[in-house]
Each structure stands twice: as C-alpha cells, then as structure tokens.
Design goal:
By secondary structure, the chain is an alpha/beta fold. 42% of the residues lie in helices and 19% in strands. Helix 6 runs antiparallel to helix 9, helix 7 packs across helix 9 and helix 9 runs parallel beside helix 10. Bound molecules: 5'-O-[(R)-(carboxyoxy)(hydroxy)phosphoryl]adenosine and zinc ion.
C-alpha cells in the first residue's frame, strides 16, 4: 500500500511517499525558517501564506522523487491536528482536493502521534537500515515515548502505532520553546535549539545552576517558563552596569548550563515514566530529540535503568510528512478513514 503524506501544522510544508508504512520513497520538506527568523518565532499568518505557495510544488516533488504519479497512490494521509489552524488548513485542503478529484481514501493523522512513528521509517536510498528500522512493530512497541518539539512536550505510553495514552504534558512552554526563547534572550537567533546544541559543546554545563522544575513529586508534567525567566534575569544581571567583562561567565558556559537544566528534567521524567510503567523500551521523537546532549544523557540513563533506547535519525525527528504517511498506513489498515468534511483542529486529542 502506497501512501502520500502531507504535513503543514507549523512552519514546514512537507510531503512524502511511503510504502507499507515503512519504506520512505520520497521525503520533501520546505522549511519557512528564513521567513520567521527576523521575528524570533513562527508568525501564523506568514506561515499560512507560505504553505499556500509551497504545497503544490512540494507534493509534485514528492511524487517525482518517488517516481510515481497519483494513480499509484492508494490513500492520502494528512496531519489535521494539533497545530496552527490556518497552517493545518492548507495541507488538509490540498489532501481533500486530491482525495475528491482522484477518488482516493483520506486518512487524518495526529501530529504528535506521528512523531512517535518516526523511529519505524526506513530510507529507500540507504544501503542499510536508517537508525533502526528493520525491526518489526513487536520489537518497537510497547514503549514509553518522549515527544519534545517546539509546540509540545509529552510523555506517552504507546501500546502500538495507533494506540497511545498521554502520561504527562507541559503546563506552559514546550521544551523546544524553552530553547528558542532562551536563545532569543541571549541574542542567538531563531530557531534556538540547533545553535544552543552547537555552542553548548564548548561550555561547562555546571557553570550556572539554573532552576529545574519538577512540579509535584511523582508528576510527569513539565514546566519550562520559569527557566526562560531565570535565563533572562541572569543574563541581564551579568551584563549589567558595573560588571567587569572578566567577571562574566562565558556564553558557552551559560548556554551549556541552560541546556543541561532542560535535558535533566526531560531525562528524569522519561525514566520515571519508564520505571512506573515497567517499560522495556524508551523512544524519543520531535525536534528536540535531535539534541546531542539529550541523546547522550538519555542513553546513559537508559543503560543505568536497563531499558532499550530507540532514537530516530534527526531528519525524522523534526517535522516531516514521512511520519504522517507511515502512521496513516496503520490507520488505513484499521479502516480508520476520514470523510471529506475533515476539519483542521488546533488542539491535541487527549
Ligand atoms: O518537531 P519540530 O520540528 O516542530 C514542532 O512540531 O514544533 O520541532 C522544532 C523544535 C524547535 O523548537 C527547535 O528549536 C527544536 O525543535 N530543535 C532542537 C534541536 N533541533 C531542533 N532543540 C534542541 N536541540 C536541537 N539540536
Ligand atoms: Zn512536530
């Protein structure tokens, strides 16, 4: 079964062709980062307009790269939630138009749950498996998953690709948002995650003791807004009048320390969830799962606890449509098709 996947929930316009939910025949991502950079974050109206311009060329490119035309597509999977509603609407409208014009089944895919599916994808072009991925679903699920991105931070228990329960989520900012906002305070540009990851490699993560918010004992929820404020006041203080440059903590040390504060909370809570659910496997997904310190510390913690860590390759951690087509395949197999009145929804399915 060959699916065309479409993704437009935030600032990436993406389309992909995936065979049998696994083999990625093409994966096209048009990023709008440059358009949003000068505003220091995603501007919803600019995102919607850019999706309108990109959606048709991106879908055409995905079909061309896969060497197929629409006749070969068995179903269209589209991300319809959660995200910016104006942005989602563009992908959803394109998917509905193709489904209606070509009489193809339509499948609605939840973006957060699609991030969980990234680990199961395999590249056509690669000589060997990419990341993992010759594994069967039984070798991957059940697992505890941390999905950490610019819009979401959740810990879920995934019994199968299509069955998962939320164990915890953010009460304010998402982890990626904490990286992005801290980078803005420090004048490092947008998006903050990749640049913080790079600069932190030169710094001492113990230089500044930034707060780590654990909320109530045993809680699997997150709060990152306090960290953003702490970084702001710390940075203002250390660059304030009367401070000699020699007294200042070097930028890489500040950056490594704030990254450590985010990573520690993500690792501790994910491991706590794994312990509590007696999980044998832990998986990462979402853009923040690209973070090299998070990957390394999660691996150490997983080894200590005796659980297997499943890490998707970075290109499938950030937003893409291959994960949408991949999960869409399982929903199609289960007969879970959407009607042509499918709506774009901003919120997460709880
Ligand atoms: O999953 P994603 O591409 O889009 C959303 O669904 O939000 O995640 C984007 C987020 C951004 O906040 C970005 O700063 C963060 O992922 N990110 C990283 C890294 N690469 C991307 N955060 C930390 N370290 C990275 N290497
Ligand atoms: Zn995402």
């Amino acid at each position: 079964m060959i699916l065309l996947g479409i993704e437009s929930s935030c600032d990436e316009t993406a389309a992909a062709v995936v065979a049998d939910g696994r083999l990625v025949l093409s994966n096209v991502v048009a990023s709008q980062t440059e358009l949003h950079r000068k505003y220091g974050g995603v501007v919803p109206e600019i995102a919607s307009r850019a999706h309108i311009e990109a959606i048709v060329p991106v879908i055409d490119q995905a079909l061309a790269d896969a060497g197929v035309d629409l006749d070969a597509i068995d179903a269209i999977a589209v991300c319809n939630r959660p995200g910016l509603v104006g942005a989602l609407l563009i992908g959803v409208s394109a998917a509905k138009a193709i489904a209606w014009a070509r009489n193809k089944p339509l499948v609605a895919v939840d973006h957060v749950r699609a991030h969980i599916y990234a680990y199961s994808l395999r590249d056509k072009a690669a000589a060997g498996p990419v990341g993992n991925s010759r594994e069967t679903d039984e070798q991957v699920f059940p697992c505890v998953v941390l999905v950490a991105s610019g819009g979401h931070t959740l810990i879920l228990h995934a019994a199968s690709p299509t069955k998962c329960t939320i164990l915890g989520s953010t009460t304010d900012d998402a982890a990626g948002e904490a990286f992005d906002k801290a980078a803005k305070v420090l004048g490092l540009g947008y998006p903050g995650g990749p640049v913080i990851d790079r600069i932190a490699r030169e710094g001492d993560p113990t230089a500044v003791d930034f707060p780590r918010s654990y909320l109530k004992p045993g809680s699997l929820d997150f709060s990152f807004s306090g960290l953003k404020t702490a970084v702001l006041y710390y940075w203002k203080g250390q660059n304030g009048r009367g401070r000699e440059p020699s007294e200042r903590v070097p930028l890489p040390d500040v950056v490594a320390s704030l990254q450590e504060a985010i990573v520690d909370v993500l690792v501790d809570k994910t491991m706590f969830a794994a312990e509590r659910t007696r999980a044998a496997r832990v998986m990462l997904g979402g853009g923040v799962a690209c973070n090299s310190r998070l990957r390394a510390k999660m691996q150490q913690a997983a080894d200590k606890l005796g659980v297997r860590l499943l890490l998707p390759p970075p290109k499938y951690c950030t937003d893409n449509a291959a994960m949408v087509a991949g999960l869409g395949y399982h929903l199609a197999r289960a007969g879970r098709f959407a009607a042509l009145d499918l709506e774009a929804k901003p919120g997460l399915i709880r």
